[in-house]
Amino acid sequence: MRKPLFIGSAVAIVTPFTNSGVDYQALAELIEFQIKGGSDAIVVCGTTGEASTMPDEEHIDVIKFAVEQINKRVPVIAGTGSNDTRHAIELSQAAEAVGADALLSVTPYYNKAMQKGLYEHFKVIANNVKVPIVLYNVPSRTNLNINADTIKALSEIDNIVAVKECNLGQVGDIVNSCRSDFTVYSGDDNMVLPVLSLGGKGVISVMANIIPQDTHDMVAKFFQGDINGSIKLQLQTLNLIKAIFSEVNPIPIKAAVNLLGFKAGICRMPLTEISEQNLEVLRAEMKAYGLL
Predict the structure, then answer these.
(1) Measured between alpha carbons, how far is 173 from 159 in angstroms, rounded to an integer?
(2) How far apart are CA 35 and CA 41, in angstroms?
(3) CA 246, 251, 257 angle in degrees (round to 5)?
(4) How far, in Å, CA of 120 to CA of 123, rounded?
(5) For residues 129 and 103, is the Cβ–Cβ distance under 8 A?
(6) Is residue 1 scored above 90 in pLDDT?
(7) Nearest CA among 3, 139, 199 for reference residue 185
(8) CB-based burial of residue 261 (10 Å sphere; 0-12 exposed, 13-18 middle, 19+ buried)?
(9) Catalytic hit among 64, 164, 221, 254
(10) What pLDDT sits at residue 99?
(11) Residue 8 forms beta bridges with which residues?
């Protein structure tokens, strides 16, 4: 039986940028904030980490830095997806070489592969590394869904162990059809409880960048049998979640991290700074939540 990589909350951590590169001191501070705050795993170089703007050398350097900073205290899950299968293999092998505990591999975007192509894409990546792989199904960004039956077939590959699922409508089908040791994680902060109720084991979270403890506790309470406590936490986060997704991720969450006093910097182009109107909404919701 394959054990879950984590049960609880994995933060999809932002990458602090300066005009010249990555602010590694700021990244170290954010990592320590997450570990102290109860995050059960840390995802680096994902969507929220703006991996799509990183040259390969920088991408792998950030993963290596995170591995060394975290030093086995929690699992490090490295984003290594690409719409070029060969490139995805190269990134995955490099992340494995610098010590990533697992990989997060996104659905190929733009090419719009057939389901057979998706299966072959993930299969060949898995065959070229030994570490566990989490599939990342996010149709709103890729314009392509990994169907439940394709996920079922992929779950039979030994080191494809989980999915970060953003298509709530197929979570039940995935849980019903996949092997019992295949793990489903919510990919949407506002759908953590529905996914848990259908058999999921946690969330890969954006909001955990600013509320790591509450995000962890939401899942922990559910598995401790405190369903009402878990529901209460999910409901109290909803207005904050709306604010941190008022513009395309990670624009608002980087602004929120900056408001907390960390140095997250700004997003890389083509993403721009948050609008003044949405910044005020974000600030108001963070104050209402007790963060400011």
Answers:
(1) 21
(2) 8
(3) 100
(4) 5
(5) yes
(6) no
(7) 199
(8) exposed
(9) 164
(10) 98
(11) 202
- Integer angstrom CA distances of residue 274 from 60, 244, 251, 256: 28, 10, 6, 10
Beta bridge partners of 205: 11
**Residue 235 burial (CB < 10 Å; 0-12/13-18/19+)?**
exposed
Which candidate, 217, 132, 131, 245, places its Cα nearest to that of 182? 132
pLDDT score of 112: 87
The tokens describing 253, both together, are 């969450």
Q: What angle do CA 262, 54, 59 make, to 5 degrees?
A: 85
In degrees and rounded to multiples of 5, residue 184 shows phi and psi of -110, 130
Sorted by sequence, the CB contacts under 8 Å of residue 72 that are 6+ apart come out as: none
Rounded CA-CA distance 38/51 in Å is 24
| CA dist., res. 200 & res. 57, Å (int) | 34
Among all chains, which residue has been given the structure tokens 């996949």? 178
Rounded CA-CA distance 120/251 in Å is: 33
Helix axes of 115-127 and 85-97: crossing angle, nearest 10 degrees: 30
Q: Which of 24, 64, 110, 136 is catalytic?
A: 136
Token pair of 21 as six digits: 């590169």
| pTM score, whole prediction | 0.97
DSSP string, 186-203: ES-GGGHHHHHHTT--EE
Q: What is the separation of C-alpha 219 from the centre of its chain, rounded to a whole number of angstroms?
A: 15
The helix/strand/coil state of 266 is coil
d(CA 31, CA 166): 25
**Would you call 110 a catalytic residue per the annotation?**
no
Q: Which of 241, 243, 193, 194 is nearest to 218 (CA)?
A: 193
Please write the tens of the pLDDT for every residue from 176-229: 999 999 999 999 999 999 999 999 999 999 999 999 999 999 999 999 999 999
The reply to whether 136 belongs to the active site is: yes
